[in-house]
Specification:
phenylalanine biosynthesis; 6-stranded mixed beta sheet; aromatic amino acid biosynthesis; 5-stranded mixed beta sheet; ACT_dom; 310 residues; binds 3-phenylpyruvic acid; alpha/beta; Prephenate dehydratase; ACT-like_dom_sf; elongated
Length: 310
């Protein structure tokens, strides 16, 4: 039996479309799961080799279920990311007209991307959340709701009709998906990588977040995601999910992580992996003094000073 990749299903999710862009899926069994949690749990229990789930969209930010799963519980690691441009279709049972629609459904992350369209075209329709956009289509097929926002490609599998296509409040909306596995050695650096971590502050003090961010800033490391998530320990208690440019094998990134390890209560390393749709030629040049060679030379100099050989 081939190794399996779990994904947020059922058949016809954007997640599935994004997953199928990875070449290795040709040799994997792709298994739909009803939720992000169940797909990630399949990895934790060893039922699946990896799970593919949405993590961020360009309209609303982080997909909180995924972030919270990666923040807590048995540690997992991110190995790949995929970006997918998203526009929605309004799917209905054949024969349904716009004026028949009283209830609409989709994944909660779809709502901010179709809100204006809904207000303009279906201002009185009641919104119900679905476990995924394809699950919304399935619920429309079952007659539970009148219409679903989903990918146009989800119409066929659920015997639905596309009443409206190319619905998007924001131009160029993209969703980012990640391939998550059990912790292991990260893939070798490609020259266009990112590193994901979760940070818990040691104590609450003025400038605390600035101090954490300073570990990246002083080493010339650009950040690509900063999302706070409640720790669950009370109002005002947050941890920070951060994506930083670079790979843990880059000296500047390793050095920043060492600084954070010393100053934070806890640091969870979530992996270093290639940036989607970015090549080394697209990456900004390093800030002066932050290359591997300069870190090695500086460490050598300190060692020589300690030896009295400067
Ligand atoms: O993959 C899907 O279809 C999902 O339900 C997750 C999602 C939600 C909103 C935009 C893209 C993906």
């Amino acid at each position: 039996m081939p190794a399996s990749y779990a994904y947020l299903g059922p058949e016809g999710t954007f997640t599935e479309v994004a997953l199928r862009t990875l070449p290795e899926t040709a040799t994997r069994e792709l298994v739909p799961y009803v939720s992000v949690q169940s797909a990630l749990d399949a990895v934790r229990t060893g039922e699946a080799e990896a799970a593919f789930v949405p993590i961020e969209n360009s309209v609303e930010g982080g997909i909180t279920t995924t972030l919270d799963e990666l923040v807590a519980g048995q540690p997992l690691m991110i190995y790949r990311e995929v970006l997918l441009s998203i526009t929605f279709a309004l799917l209905v049972r054949p024969g349904t007209k716009l004026s028949d629609i009283k209830t609409v459904t989709a994944h909660p992350a779809a709502q901010p991307q179709v809100r204006n369209w809904l207000k303009a075209h279906l201002p009185d329709a009641a919104w119900e959340s679905a476990a995924s956009n394809a699950d919304g289509a399935r619920l429309v097929q079952e007659g539970r709701y009148d219409a679903a926002f989903a990918g146009e490609f989800a119409a066929g599998p659920y015997g639905l009709e596309v009443l409206e296509s190319d619905i998007h409040d924001a131009e160029n909306a993209q969703t980012r998906f990640v391939l998550v596995g059990r912790p292991a050695r990260p893939a070798a650096p490609t020259g266009a990588d990112k590193t994901s971590v979760v940070l818990w502050q040691r104590d609450d003090h003025p400038g605390g977040l600035r101090d954490l961010l300073g570990e990246f800033a002083t080493r010339g490391i650009n950040l690509m995601l900063l999302q706070s998530r409640p720790t669950g320990a009370g109002i005002g208690n947050y941890c920070f999910c951060i994506d930083a440019e670079g790979h843990i094998s880059d000296r500047r990134v390793a050095d920043a992580l060492m600084g954070l390890k010393r100053s934070c209560l806890q640091v969870r390393y979530l992996g270093s992996y290639p940036r989607a749709e970015v090549t080394p030629a697209d990456v900004d040049p390093l800030r002066p003094g932050t290359s591997d060679e300069e870190f090695v030379a500086a460490a050598d100099w300190v060692a020589r000073c300690q030896d009295g050989r400067f």
